[in-house]
Structure formats: C-alpha cells, structure tokens
UniProtKB/TrEMBL annotation:
InterPro entries: ArgP, LTTR, LysR_HTH_N, LysR_subst-bd, WH-like_DNA-bd_sf, WH_DNA-bd_sf. It comes from Szabonella alba. GO terms for molecular function: DNA binding; DNA-binding transcription factor activity. The lineage of its organism: Bacteria, Pseudomonadati, Pseudomonadota, Alphaproteobacteria, Rhodobacterales. NCBIfam families: argP, PRK03635.1, PRK13348.1. It comes from the Bacteria. Gene3D superfamilies: 3.40.190.290, Winged helix-like DNA-binding domain superfamily/Winged helix DNA-binding domain. The keyword Transcription applies. Residues 2-58 form the HTH lysR-type domain. This is LysR family transcriptional regulator ArgP. Belongs to the LysR transcriptional regulatory family. Keywords: DNA-binding, Transcription, Transcription regulation.
Length: 293
C-alpha cells in the first residue's frame, strides 16, 4: 500500500523545485519532506528525485505523480456520487497557454467555485507535454492529437494580429511590413518557445527570419509593450480590438491574421469527472475562438 502523504510530498518537490518550497506548500518542515522522500525511495528501491536546482522527479517518480493525479480524479468522481464530507476542495491541474488564459479560459473555470485549479502556463505547442507526462489532468494545446489515453476536442482557433504603435510603424516600417523591414524592426516574443512572430513572417513574406526581439512573458505586458512602441508582435485579436479601433495600435497587414487552432485534451480516466468542465471550456471557447471547420 502506497503512502499518499509521501506521494503528495514527491509531487510538491517536483512542482516547487526544492525541498524548502515543498515544505512551505505542505506546511511541514524541510526535514519532514526529506524523510518522506527518503522513506518512499527506500521502500521502492529506486531514486525518485534528482536533487539539484531545481529538483525534478525521475521517470519512476513521474509515474508515481501520475498515479497520484489519477487517484485524485477517482476520488473527485466518488465525492460526486457519495456524500463524503472531507472538507477539502478537489484540486485540478491543467496546462494552458497564457493567451487563452488572458482571453477566454477564466470564465469557464469560474463556473466551478467548489474546485481549486492549479494552472501550468506553457506555450500551446508544448502544453501537451505536461499531459503526456501525466503531470496534469487536461490541457489546452495546439496539437490535434491523438494522445494515448486522452480525449481530444477541437475548440476553434485563436486569431492573432501583427500589431505595433503608429510611431513604431512610422520609424521602422514607413512603407509597410515586408521581409526587409521585418528583418530589422524589433519584435516582441513571449519566450524562446514562442514561434508566432516567425510563423507570421513566413506566412506573410515567405522568408525565414529571426528578427531582433524583446522577451516579455506576459500577455497584458505584451500588448502594452506594443502600444508603447517597443516593438511589434502577434497579439490576440480579442485583447487588442479596442486599441485598434482607437488607433493606439496598427495592424501590420489587416488581410493577414494568424489563426492558431486549439484543442482540449483530457485523460479518459477522468472523463466523467471532467465532463462538466469540458462543457464549460467548449462554451467559453465558442464565445471567443473562430469555430473549427
């Protein structure tokens, strides 16, 4: 029989990156964290945590964390069927891209006041990796699947516009956006995983360019940086429609938006438990995303 307090400690170390941060999250001492991890490793006869900066679970450790997530889903389903007065709100871990979080996901989550959400923020091209490793129960991804053991539901496409301030356009692109100006003009990039700017340049010009860029990992900050003339970038249409109408942002090429398809992928093990949330996610997506073909 596995000790689920030890499994929860293992998950906390992996997610928080250190024994000290795991201790703070669990309201126990770092010594107690160390003792639990050591006891679990000794019992199973294998290394479960790679000590370092940050600490990360090994493959056997990840399998145990995945098991813990699966048990949590089953317990949530049981609580829906039986009057279990545990006093604890269930926690659901989901991977989601920052722009979806900033534009349409939160209303879906807000419809579930009796649930806690642990959101992992990652690029839509990489959020599926969290689900593949079993570290989340569901993910909003840019991958159509299939993913073993998971359901995949198309949600629609998030439309992006290449935007910059009028002053930026006057300085860097007075004759418009073409391969030559885009190669020189400063761009704004969310992170090293963000390919939207380069994808748009290729779709617009056919050129494979890597422009000089700011790195700014904030959806709202991204919009503000563009408004202030720091650079140009791909912003969700839903976030910038008013700024475009007010003339505070310009569309580099109004006839060339970039539509990014999104999918809801969730473990089949939790299909019944997640069904209400899946419906809410689909309804919220329908309000903002371009309907799937």
């Amino acid at each position: 029989m596995l000790d689920y307090a030890q499994l929860a400690t293992l998950a906390a170390v992996h997610r928080r990156g250190s024994f000290e941060h795991a201790a703070a999250a669990l309201a126990i001492t770092p010594s107690a964290v160390s003792q639990r991890i050591k006891a679990l490793e000794e019992r199973l006869g294998t290394l479960l945590v790679r000590r370092g900066q940050p600490c990360r679970a090994t493959e056997p450790g990840l399998r145990l964390i995945r098991h813990l997530e699966e048990v949590a889903l089953m317990e949530t389903a049981l609580a829906q069927d039986l009057p279990l007065a545990t006093g604890d709100l269930p926690v659901l871990r989901i991977a989601v891209n920052a722009d979806s979080l900033a534009t349409w996901v939160l209303p879906a989550l807000a419809a579930f006041p009796d649930m806690l959400f642990d959101l992992v923020i990652d690029d839509q091209d990489h959020s599926q990796d969290w689900l593949r490793r079993g570290e989340v129960a569901a993910a909003i991804t840019g991958h159509p699947g299939p993913l073993q053991g998971c359901d995949t539901i198309p949600l629609g496409a998030l439309r992006y516009r290449a935007t910059a301030s009028p002053d930026f356009m006057a300085r860097w692109m007075p004759g418009g956006a073409d391969a030559a100006t885009l190669a020189r003009a400063p761009a704004i990039t969310f992170s090293d995983k963000d390919r939207l700017q380069r994808d748009w340049i290729f779709a617009r010009t056919g050129a494979r360019l890597t422009p000089p860029t700011h790195r700014l990992a904030s959806s709202q900050g991204f919009v503000e940086a563009a408004r202030l003339g720091m650079g140009w970038g791909m912003n969700p249409e839903a976030l910038i429609a008013d700024l475009l109408m007010q003339g505070e942002l310009c569309d580099l090429s109004p006839d060339h938006p970039l539509d990014v398809p999104l999918y809801w992928q969730a473990t089949r093990l939790g299909r019944r438990t997640l069904a209400p949330l899946t419906r809410a996610i689909r309804a919220a997506a329908a309000q903002v995303l371009i309907a799937p073909a």
